[in-house]
Amino acid sequence: MAQQQRTVLLVGAGVMAEGYLRAADALGLRVGVVETPERHAAIADRFPALADFEPVTGDAALDESWTAPAMTLAARLHPDAVWGFAEPHVLATTLVQHRLGLPGPGLDAATVSRNKALQRSEFARAGLPQPAHRHVRKLSDATDWALDRLPVVVKPLAAQGSQGVERVASPSSWADAVARRDAEGPLLVEQYVEGPEYSVEALVHGGRVLFTNLTRKETTGPPYFVEVFHEAGHGAQRPVLRKTADELCRGVVRAVGMATGIAHLEFRAAAEDEPMIMEVAVRTPGDHIAELVSRAHGFDVFEACLRLALGETPAVPDGQAPLRAAGSLFLSSPVSGRLAELDLSAWAGLPEVARHAPRLAAGAEVRPARDSGDRLAWAILDCVTPDRLDALARELVDTVEVRLAPGPPRTVES
Predict the structure, then answer these.
(1) How many CB atoms are closer than 10 A to CB 57?
(2) Which positions fall inside the ATP-grasp domain (predicted)?
(3) Which of 73, 76, 121 shows the shortest CA–CA distance to 93?
């Protein structure tokens, strides 16, 4: 008797989730997606696995907009697995998994991951290394504490992509931040941690970490720290840092009670054995990192995630010996203005540039990046060695032509 085709409900199917749709095609799965009508129209004819769709009609940036359509589609499909994509999809996905008794990170891990103050509380309880911090209703409530510890970082509790993250280094800058953000609502204020930024991507099954990858990050620096480069498979020649990252990741998975899924842990390290946790998410990492991990380690992360969602234990490498050096590069405008031209033609046809695309079109208002949405373009790089990866990234930045419309610099509002 032929085996019945299995069904996956995918909550969110953005550009960086297309790897799940390709993997579903390869595995012979049937997929229903919860997405905006516009995004669904962009993928409907491209992936044979797509079989059903439920629209999101509210504000797609809000967690609450995804729950009702996810429940509606689940009732219609009776899926064998449910998988979420980005940050606003985590709670809706986990609620459906919980109600259907399907594998997922668990309600506790999902709830903690969506609230940075809850993360700080759980990490403190578990004795994990993290910055000194205060959770306040109004930014001004942290004034005395912050002024004694400058520089500090101000961040919202549930945003992503560096939105609202700001380093404050002086009393006058603190006063300015309070004037701008005191009515914003609850915020987290943390002591600033020096050191390079990294992330760990982990596949977890039944609370057991199956695979980890170490990613090195480069950012725009203070005050906003927008990520502009990622190198997956980092650390093959840095065993102390690699061991530190693995141990930290396993401690975080235990602390948040994560069951099954993918974890994305960000940390800083002034020294290789002195990590400080920034935050953790139980969803697909952004900035094409899942694709980078696949390229660096020679296996399909998206397929592995679908197998986890189906209750299987995927075959994964040990993560200790990457096969390639893979990176994602993002461009940021040096000044504010109106974009007249973004010429990426020098990138076309380069064999080590796997994919690339603009993010903003001519006519868009641009500024030096304050969050991920300000970045102009991206490229996926696939090289033989980390040294070649770094050199190629510098070459690509130097060959891009960014032209702004004539006239004085413009102020682009947040």
Answers:
(1) 11
(2) 120-310
(3) 73
For the segment(s) 7-102, the CATH number from 2.170.190.11, 3.40.50.1010, 3.40.50.20, 3.40.50.2300 is 3.40.50.20
Is the distance from CB of 389 to CB of 329 less than 8 angstroms? no
Digits of tens for pLDDT over the chain (414 positions)? Answer: 456 899 999 999 999 999 999 999 999 999 999 999 999 999 999 999 999 999 998 899 999 999 999 999 999 999 999 999 999 999 999 999 999 999 999 999 999 999 999 999 999 999 999 999 999 999 999 999 999 999 999 988 876 556 778 899 999 999 999 999 999 989 999 999 999 999 999 999 999 999 999 999 999 988 888 999 999 999 788 899 999 999 999 999 999 999 999 999 999 998 999 999 999 999 999 999 999 999 999 999 999 999 999 999 999 998 889 999 999 999 999 889 999 999 999 999 899 999 999 999 999 999 999 888 999 999 999 999 999 999 999 999 999 988 999 855 444 433
Contact 409, 336 (CB under 8 A): yes
Whether the pTM exceeds 0.85: the reply is yes
DSSP symbols for 197-208? EEEEEEEEETTE
Domain ranges of the chain: 7-102, 132-191
CATH among 3.20.20.370, 2.70.70.10, 3.30.1490.20, 3.50.50.60 for 132-191 = 3.30.1490.20
Backbone angles phi, psi at 169, to 5 degrees: -115, -10
The structure tokens listed for 198 are 């990294």
Of 297, 256, 328, 292, nearest to 90 by C-alpha is: 256
**CB < 8 Å & 24+ apart, contacts of 150-155:** 150/174, 151/192, 151/222, 152/189, 152/190, 152/191, 152/192, 153/189, 153/190, 153/191, 153/192, 154/181, 154/187, 154/188, 154/189, 155/116, 155/187, 155/188, 155/190
